[in-house]
Amino acid sequence: MINVTRIGKHCGAEISGVDLSVPLDEHTFAQIANAFFDNEVVFFRNQQLTPAQQIAFTRRFGTLEAHVRKESRLAGADEIFVLSNKLDANGKAIGAQDAGRFWHSDLSYKREPSMLSALYAVEVPVKDGVALGNTYFASTTAAYNALSDACKQRVEHLRNVHSYREYRLKNYAAQQQDERRGIRTVQEHAPTPEQLASVPDTEMNVVRVHPVTRRKGLFINEGHTSHLVGMPRAQSDQLLARLYAHMTQPEFIYGHSWRVGDLLMWDNIAVQHKATFDYDPLPRLMYRTTVRGPAVV
Length: 297
Ligand code: OGA
Ligand code: MN
Known about the structure:
Shape: globular
Number of helices: 7
Order of helices and strands: EEHEHEEEEEEHHEHHEEEEHEEEE
Bound molecules: N-oxalylglycine, manganese (II) ion
Oligomer: single chain
Structural class: alpha+beta
């Protein structure tokens, strides 16, 4: 019997009483899947998972992605995307260290964006007994529900373009700016032309109905959305800024303070998320698996 404890007001719950390293029976898996879609973000403490075990558990939710950033995949396990500020013996980054600088939903720029991501904490930076590098999750379904009727009508038929290309260029520029300010960052490669060309921009509805829960949410995010379709850029920027400010109000957010051995999963359709870069040069190492979702319309 699993135990589910809701923590955030609109998203975030702890699930206890499960060992994810062993194959789960159908009933237990169904309980976890229900709790996951209902709470939008769930986590399990004290898990001891090999990459293969993390892959085996998350694969039960669907097809796993191998990330477009090949240099950040774990050697021998293409489905694990490494997030870390650590360097290998040659001084080369062992993973992506800039993931999550902006509010975003994983792979939302793809024709088939991610359904969910699972992040396993291998090394967590701790300073003076306090864990650093929290991750924040904002429920887009709660944000949608809280819109006025007039605002719901305003956004109902809007479409937006998600652009991996613009995101990588924006991220790279932000990183360069950090360096100029003297904030140490791992020397990340500028996105390669191949990477940029491999993911074309995608147009999709602003209001997205969740395929499992049927809840409506706002599928726009500051990391990947480049603009709203069919209006001047300045007007689009203004409306997006208002919506982002609404969506990231504290009441919609669950903030996770990591412990080694946490496996945390979030619903990329129902929530967006953001990292905190307050720990460098303390080492942080996380392994992510990413489940593909249905195509956007
Ligand atoms: C991710 C991500 C944030 C973090 O794994 O997709 O955005 O805090 N991570 O590491
Ligand atoms: Mn992310």
